[in-house]
Structure formats: structure tokens, C-alpha cells
Design brief:
The protein has about 270 residues and is an all-alpha fold. It has one domain (about 55-260): MetI-like (MetI-like fold). It has helices at about 1-20, 20-30, 45-55, 55-90, 95-100, 110-125, 130-155, 160-165, 170-200, 205-210, 215-225, 230-255, 255-260. Helix 4 crosses helix 9 (about 170-200), helix 8 runs antiparallel to helix 9 and helix 9 (about 170-200) packs antiparallel against helix 12.
């Protein structure tokens, strides 16, 4: 049993070390002074970070990605909040079917979703335009907003609202001062995760970008095919650090439970 325990711990440690290894290699490669990506990096330099921060083209593309991600996160969280409010508060027909429909983007491969989105934006004449890209990211991020918001609503005790209204609070005041603050963790979780998903999306975006419009992940993908400059490793390292900071702050301030595990049980009103 002791030998099995040691072997088990060794295997777990090996897996935990192996998983972040590609990220670590990319981060270390970004500090190379050479004009190509290599590992180990050899002589260290911040040359490629300076090139990234000094490039108007890279920064403009990053601003486009951040703008699309922020708008997609805001739209998907708002729409999901209203839909989840209706489903959790009212006994609507086909509730299970509606939830399955909302989660469909998680089932289809992203390449298939890209083809579908391309046909959809083509109907509106938004191919290769900002609105078409925003629509695609909005649809893609809805499932990631749905889960934490619905979980927060199903954990919410309706007796708190009833107590507030029994003390004379109007319905809208109760919603604004009681309901929204209690649901805020789920909404903030949805906002941050949908932002990350949209900002890092590349497969669907490849079908929706145009000659004058691109996102940072798509531009990175194209740069890898063309040159493989170490500036790509520097940008990737910066994005990894940015994402880790957001997830860390989210875990410390709110916790990740609302995203990683959905609570399917309603609390009965007292």
C-alpha cells in the first residue's frame, strides 16, 4: 500500500508539472534575444515585449479584441440574466428544452459553429464587419454566462424578497436593492468568463474577420504561419498573465463555484 501511495503521488505530481509545461516554455521563449522562437532562450532580453508595446498595429488589433470581448460579455450577460430570470421565476413550458438550446454552442465543434455564424452574418450583410463578429461572439459566449447566473438564481432564497416586500418595499425597489446584490456574484462571474472566452476565441473568428478587421488571436495565428517571430511568444505570455490575473481575482473575490458547478436544486420559499 505504501508503494502504491508513493507511485500515485508521483504520477499526480508528474501530471501537474506536465500540464503547465507548454505555457512555461512559451513564456521563457518570449525573453529570447534571437530573432526566432527557441528553447532554452539563451541570452535574455525584453526586445520582443518592447516591439509589441511599440507596434500601433498590434495594439490596435488588441483594442478591437478587447472592445468586442467587452461588448459580447455585456450583451450575453444581460440577455442571459433576463432569460434566466424568466425561467427560474416562472413555470414556463419546455424549460428543459430552452436550457438545452442555450447550451448548444458548447456541443458543436467551433469549426462548424464558424460556418454557421458565417451564414448567419451573411443574411444581415455583416460579413467581415464589426457587427458580424460581435454577433458571433455574443452567441458563442451565452452558455458561459448562463451557467453561473442560473446557478446563482437557483441558490437565491425567495423568502428574502418576500420579507422585503412584506415590510413595504415596492417590487422594483426590492429587485434593485435586494435581488440584484444577492445575484451579483453570478453576474460578475459571467461577465469575466465571457470576456475571457470572447477575447481568446480564434476558430469562429477566422470565419468572421475581414480584410480591414481582425482580432488579436487571429492575427497571432496568421503571424505564426507567416514568420514565427518571438513577438508572438511575448504577446501570448502577456495574455496568459492577463487571464491568470482575472481568474485569480475572480476566485479571491467571488469564488469559482458558480461557474464550475451548477446548482440544480431550487430552495423552497419559506
Amino acid at each position: 500500500m505504501k508503494a502504491w501511495s508513493i507511485a500515485h503521488r508521483t504520477l499526480v505530481a508528474a501530471v501537474l508539472l506536465f500540464l503547465p509545461a507548454p505555457i512555461l516554455i512559451v513564456v521563457l521563449s518570449s525573453f529570447t534575444k534571437a530573432g526566432y522562437i527557441g528553447f532554452p532562450p539563451g541570452e535574455l532580453s525584453l526586445r520582443w515585449y518592447a516591439e509589441f508595446l511599440g507596434s500601433a498595429d498590434w495594439l490596435a488589433t488588441m483594442a478591437i479584441s478587447a472592445g468586442i470581448a467587452a461588448l459580447a460579455a455585456l450583451l450575453s450577460t444581460t440577455v442571459t440574466f433576463l432569460g434566466a430570470l424568466a425561467i427560474t421565476r416562472q413555470r414556463l413550458p419546455m424549460t428543459q428544452g430552452l436550457e438545452t438550446l442555450v447550451l448548444l454552442p458548447l456541443i458543436f465543434p467551433h469549426a462548424a459553429l464558424g460556418v454557421i455564424m458565417l451564414g448567419l452574418v451573411g443574411i444581415f450583410g455583416w460579413t467581415g464587419e464589426f457587427l458580424g463578429l460581435l454577433l458571433g461572439h455574443f452567441i458563442l459566449t451565452i452558455p458561459y454566462a448562463w451557467r453561473p447566473i442560473v446557478a446563482a438564481m437557483r441558490k437565491h432564497d425567495l423568502a428574502v424578497e418576500e420579507a422585503a416586500m412584506s415590510l413595504g418595499a415596492p417590487p422594483f425597489y426590492t429587485f434593485r436593492k435586494v435581488t440584484l446584490p444577492l445575484l451579483r456574484p453570478g453576474m460578475v462571474t459571467a461577465l469575466l468568463f465571457t470576456f475571457i472566452i470572447s477575447f481568446d476565441e480564434v476558430t469562429v473568428s477566422l470565419f468572421l474577420v475581414g480584410p480591414d478587421l481582425s482580432t488579436l488571436p487571429v492575427k497571432i495565428f496568421s503571424a505564426i504561419q507567416d514568420s514565427g517571430s518571438p513577438v508572438i511568444a511575448a504577446i501570448s505570455a502577456a495574455l496568459v498573465v492577463f487571464t491568470m490575473i482575472i481568474v485569480f481575482l475572480l476566485d479571491r473575490v467571488i469564488g469559482l463555484e458558480l461557474f464550475v458547478s451548477a446548482e440544480e436544486r431550487r430552495r423552497p420559499a419559506a
